[in-house]
Amino acid sequence: MFVLRMLLLLGLYTLGLNALEVTVCDCEQASQKGILKFSDEDCQPEKNENRTNKVNYSVYTEKREELKFPGYICARWKQIKHITTSFFGQKVVVPDKIALETSPLECLTMYESRRCNEQPMTINDNKFFYDQEPVEDGWWLETVTVETINCAVEKIQLYEETEGESFSTPLGIAPATAGSISHNHLTLIWDKTFTVKSEPKARLVESGVAIIITTGTPNKFRMHDEEKELEFHIQITNKRCLPPLTTCDVKADAFDVIGQPKLYIFTTPIIPKNTSLEEGSRKRPVLKEDASIDVVANFQYLRDQLLDNENDLTREIENLQCEKRKATHERVVSTAQFNGWLAASMVNLPKCTKRSEKQC
User: Fold this and answer.
1) DSSP tag of 240
2) Distance between CA 343 and CA 40 in Å, rounded?
3) Residues 6 or more apart from 268 whose CB is under 8 A from it?
């Protein structure tokens, strides 16, 4: 029995050396967090805070519009016949045709005089021509060569898109200041006064009523014309003289069109109470002198409309999600007053959470 008591004392002594150490947390100032925590209880979708101003606008450019002017293509050729008469009077005719070079002066003379080597030319619409076969009976037992020169002039329409630069013609690319071009025995002439570079002059290409919409980028805006379905991305630039003036002492604010450096815009605000001003601006004629400008602006209008629709749809989805979260929050809080476990299950809270060491 004594041995048993000694073993028991030794065991208790050993347990005392390996005792568990327990840390007690100080929870005197614990705060009640509740069973749920919503970080964005008052969630709201981002609102479109872009400001808009209604204005009358005028789009100008100093680029000359596409120029149309007349040109004249001239050609000359030699019509030849080789006539051989046999012993029995039989005639053998061998025709031939040789193209001739035509100088710009000869071409101009043919057009102005309507003559080909002093022979009157036949006029048919925009074409003048002289086309005759050489006439000769020939000689017995001889070969006779007869010839005549024929001419043709045609009036055509030429186009020059950019002032002072080379332009395309039926005979190839022509320098603007040359006045003529030749290729394959054909000569094209035109009046050089049409193609010389002139002083820049402001030209009105579009006008109407639009709204200017602010963007997230400083000094950059969108100008939206709903009636004409045009859209311009614009930015504030240096002041300019009001057309038709090119030099002035007092300049007005102007906008540059982003992506179309040769365009600039003047605007005047529309006062809402002044209905006559708005109606008068809408009666302005729609100018279509430069269709390419309207095409670009209309394409930009379609792109921005699509982007605006996508942004509106995104805001609506965010609004629905926000309303759903707020409704869930209110429903859970209301349920928690009567049944905490049911409220926890509504938001899929875990049934058991394992505490970590040294945690109250």
Assistant:
1) B
2) 19
3) 55, 56
* One-letter amino acid for residue 209 of the chain: V
Domain count, the chain: 2
Residue 14 lies in a domain: no
pLDDT in tens, 130-165: 988 887 777 777 888 888 999 999 999 998 877 667
Domain endpoint, select from 154, 171, 194: 194
Say whether both 134 and 167 belong to one domain: yes
Rounded CA gap, 178 and 155, in Å?
18
Are residues 210 and 291 part of one domain? yes
In this structure, are 208 and 270 located in the same domain? yes
- Bridge partners (DSSP) listed for residue 119: 116
**CATH code for the domain in which residue 251 is found:** 2.30.29
Instruction: Please tell me whether residues 273 and 129 are part of one structural domain.
Output: no
CA distance 32 to 186: 99
Amino acid at 335: T
Among the listed residues 185, 155, 184, 187, the one whose alpha carbon sits nearest the alpha carbon of residue 174: 187
CA gap 78, 98 in Å, rounded: 5
Once rounded to an integer, what is the mean pLDDT over residues 220-230? 86
Q: How many Å apart are CA 154 and CA 169, to the nearest integer?
A: 14
Domain of 150 in residue numbering reads as: 67-194
What gap in Å lies between CA 266 and CA 55, rounded to an integer? 10
Assess whether 81 and 190 both reside in one domain. yes
Q: What is the pTM of this model?
A: 0.48
Residue 97 to residues 59, 77, 122, Cα–Cα distance (Å): 57, 7, 20
Identify the helix (H) or strand (E) that includes residue 316: helix 291-336
